[in-house]
Write a structure and sequence with these properties.
Length: 126
């Protein structure tokens, strides 16, 4: 399974984006299931509402919810990254936990947001 991060979804929705076109071509070629998280859905819907873009395309993706198991792992990720002296965005830790717990790969253009998460088991789709 490959989980699409918010930035990838936004690029795909932007019909003028070359990055989005490349991402769409890349994910349509993979036999793996494509999904996103409820957190990414929130971020994208907020942006879509804010900028009045159509939301129907994004709503067709399977949505992986944030579970108790994810909360336990996300808190560990956040703690471990901060222990190394780095700052971490809580929602990024949550997205990483959902991805890891679903044995999936995260597709993101914001690699710096997830730097150091690979040590904890996060796999990235490239």
């Amino acid at each position: 399974m490959i989980i699409l991060d918010s930035d990838v979804l936004i690029e795909i929705l932007d019909r003028k984006s070359q990055k989005g076109d490349q991402a769409l071509k890349q994910i349509t070629k993979t036999p793996e299931m494509i999904a996103t998280t409820s957190i990414n859905l929130h971020e994208v819907l907020y942006g879509l509402n804010k900028y009045a873009k159509p939301v129907q395309e994004i709503l067709l993706l399977p949505i992986l919810s944030y579970t108790k198991k994810d909360a336990v792992l996300a808190s560990k990720i956040e703690f471990e990254v901060e222990k190394k002296g780095k700052t971490v965005c809580r929602t990024d830790a949550m997205i990483a936990a959902i991805t890891i717990n679903n044995d999936a790969k995260l597709y993101t253009f914001n690699l710096k947001h997830f730097y150091g998460f690979e040590d904890i088991g996060l796999k990235l789709f490239q």
